[in-house]
Design a protein that fits this description.
single chain
């Protein structure tokens, strides 16, 4: 698999936007630029695995990727928060 330089920039942009959105939705202060990108990319991985299994399709193109990544990142942050706080929100 080969990803072009533009593809890498798109992944980083989507990860940054999705991580920032997830931080705002979960009411966190964020993890900084790199942390937000990593959370967004991890959320995209979670969503790309979960949504097709559930048969969910939202939007098209870049907007869909940002929505999927943000939802996946929110789910990821909620699980991390549950683990860190011992089951309390």
């Amino acid at each position: 698999m080969h990803i072009s330089n533009e593809g890498i920039l798109v992944v980083l942009f989507v990860g940054l936007v999705a991580g920032w959105l997830a931080g705002k939705i979960v009411r966190g202060t964020g993890f900084g630029l790199i942390g937000d990108i990593l959370v967004g990319i991890a959320g995209a991985l979670v969503a790309s695995f979960l949504f097709p299994k559930l048969g969910i399709a939202i939007g098209t193109g870049l907007v869909r990727e940002i929505i999927y990544s943000a939802i996946g990142a929110v789910l990821l942050l909620l699980v991390v928060r549950l683990v860190r706080t011992g089951g309390r929100f």
